[in-house]
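Hi everyone,

Forwarding the result from last night's run.
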Amino acid sequence: MQRPEPIAERHDVRGDAPVPDDILLGGRPVVLRGLVRDWPMVRAAQAGANAAVAYLSGVVRPGAPPAAVTVGPPEIDGRFFYDDAMRGFNFRREQVPLDVVLRTLLNYAQTDAPPAIYVASTTIDTWLPGFNAANAVDLGSRAPLASIWIGNRTRIAAHQDLPDNLACVAAGRRRVTLFPPEQLANLYIGPLDLTPAGQPISLVDFAAPDLARFPKFAEAMRHAQGAELEPGDAVFIPSLWWHHMEGLEPFNVLVNYWWRQSPAWMDTPMNALMLALMSIRDLPDGERAHWREIFRHYVFDADDATAGHIPEHARRVLAPLDETLARDLRAKLLQRLNR
């Protein structure tokens, strides 16, 4: 099967200057080699896992609440996934103090077959105050959500996120495999409403793809892009690009910055998809075709002419939305859904 093409790389961007907009608005993945190599966290990690854990332990907030930890038995080989019947999952979640998690990862670092341990998407300001000030990325006027991921050798199934994403390797190494959004049909995505971590995932095991069961995955791989990231490297993952992430060392830390190019008051399109599944997908063919035309007219091909025949003051939701109109519309939708 074809190997991923290398993700485009830049070597001229450093963390002491803003990340250029031609990268962040370009809509294409880019690896930024050495972007955060001067972070104190990265310098500690380059001295080894013990130094990296000591650095993180030194900035854990005293009295912080326990962190959500995902734990799987050694036999899952780091792959957090469904159970065999796809009625549940092959892991459990626990609430554990973050400093205990860090010590546990160190204790298992020399073990041949440790349990899979992952602290996923933990808000940095809640658990590690001061980390962002000392380990910063300049994203201009954007106000991203910064989160940290800590674990051992784990595999996170291909999924997509709504926000744009700058992922920075702070310790260990990562292998990232990316697919453009249009590869949806070739990735064999699982349930939308029963997911390991909130996002639908590919059912393909990237370590051993079953092409008899998932034959179109070979076509997805013809469009794949990949890279291995060292401490200090970063990758920009545009909105809705599918990404499969692997931690390659006994101790790995990833710092994510997420932001949207739309106002914070805009709802997630996933809610619209769920409502469409409930109200449109199973209509008779003719009615569904009519709704396809309605969505094309009002949503996908909307322009100034769509409501140009209506007096401006009367356009309401057909006018450009703002926070007030969105709040009113959400209230009306909730009334209808709760009837």
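The mean pLDDT is 95.

Cheers,
N.
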